[in-house]
Amino acid sequence: MNITEKILSRASGRERVAPDDVVFANVDKVMVHDVSGPGVIAVFEKLRKGGMKIDKLHDPQKVWVAEDHFVPAADKISAQNIVLLTQFARDFGITRHFKYGMGQYGICHTLSHEEAMVLPGEVYVGGDSHTNTTGALGAFAAGLGHTDVAYVLLNGKIWFKVPETLYFRLDGKLPGYVMAKDLILRIIGEIGTDGAAYKTMEFGGTGISGMSVEERLTLTNMTTEAGAKSGIIEPDQKIRDYLAQRGAATYREVHGDTDAQYAKIFEYDASELEPTVAKPFSPENVAPARELSSVPLDKAYIGSCTGAKLEDLRAAAGILRGRKVKIRTEVLPAAISIYRKAMEEGLIKIFMDAGAMVGPPTCGACCGAHMGVLAKDEVCISTTNRNFPGRMGHVDSKTYLASPLVAAASAVTGKITDPRDIK
Amino acid sequence: MKGSAIKYEKDNIDTDVILPGPYLKIHDYNELAKHAMEGLDRDFHKKVKPGDFIVAGRNFGCGSSREHAPIALSYSGIKAVVAVSFARIFYRNAVDGAFLLPIEVEEETYRDISDGDELELETAKNEIRNLTKNKTYRMKPFPDLIGKIIEAGGLFNYRP
User: Fold this and answer.
1) How many CB pairs under 8 A join A and B?
2) A273 is a domain residue
3) Is residue A367 part of a domain?
4) In Å, how far is A25's CA from the nearest CA of chain B?
5) With an 8 Å Cβ cutoff, is A38 touching chain B?
6) What residue numbers bound the domain in which A240 lies?
7) Helix (H, G, I), strand (E, B) or coil at A286
């Protein structure tokens, strides 16, 4: 069995599982945020109206709560949702609640690794499609809707069809100015937005073991854009060190067997990769950044669970140091802990000296909800993960997805720019 | 189950157009219905009738995990979406929450159905009848567990 099959077999108490088996898996960790939390509350209300008694969760110790989509509160409704969410956590005895304005908080997927909320070998579900992100730690991590999360909260388990696994092997070392974002965009360009539908995307090879933990997280994060159920990478010493720095030392790692089966194997030579951009209106619509150098921009956005981790900010700052932005540029670190480290390293000063706006962690603009949405016909280059029509604002706005290096280089010139070409 | 087809000749109809991001803060199901399909078809709310079907191409409902998407369609009156394939979270949200039926059909069936065709769905026979064109199509049978959850009326009513 491969790592995903082994995790699901252990979680469902079966000796063996194979793709297409349907299992009820015990869940180790559950996350809700300020959109899925109120969604779960609505499901609970519906169940109560139907006569169900709900006064406790299966295990509140396994549950954690993030405030990320509509913070700072965008309006009266979103402010009320935060109140609802807080009351919900209090009522059910959930103690891990990362609150906006009270120390560490941030985008849920970023907290999942920054705070070591999820550990290798675990089954983790969250009320958000990018829950896949956390698979980079060696966990089975999948996004679910409100009804399913409500079911997990009350029963501690949920059904999964054991997915087939697509294996992506990267050999060699990424060239300068090329990031994990360029690789995942290239992959999605090749297999399409349903190329991994219902499947798991596993990453391995020397290119992956040579990659930092944060860069690996960019890969698993965007497996969602290929339709994948989950993304996963086998844990190694880098993961152990990363988790140890965050106070987590006790867990049961799972590794694939030597005869693990994969539905298909894809091979990439790292030296052949180059800065890559996804054009509107799909993450699969990719082209080399150099081919798009005539596209004028209105805004550069460096934010989100995909593209505002510490290394993403370092990459952007490396380009912006000593330069000025030519277009509206927003930098939103993905969590307070990252914001703080960026400040201590002097990155925030670099952004401000360049003329960029630095804001609080939020999903707001990435999902077109608030905190800097796009006007009609505006064009944005963004380190985020989706560019469907209306994703970041007006339905006639356009978003190009790119790495933090490409986004920062483009901020300096005002046009899409390959960072290798910046003078 | 009988209704008219509202057809979108499009693959990858994503949750950002089915129910745009700014409305994610709303959890009143009838209010969500007013914004269904807003990112793709501003007239949807006016033209949809109770019992109608949406007909679309591959990978319907891709993108975010927002259950708001099947909820908004369901509370608009949509009873089933007939598509070549579905994105996984939309599919399980539709079934587990008992909001609507995700019906998978062959590419030719999707091509053959026109906007406004009167359809009749009989899941027990895995059949879709096009009353306008006087034709019968096969729907792909529901996988075993999915069929049982649908029959139970959603995941919370299903006993494993």
Assistant:
1) 130
2) no
3) yes
4) 12
5) yes
6) 3-268
7) strand
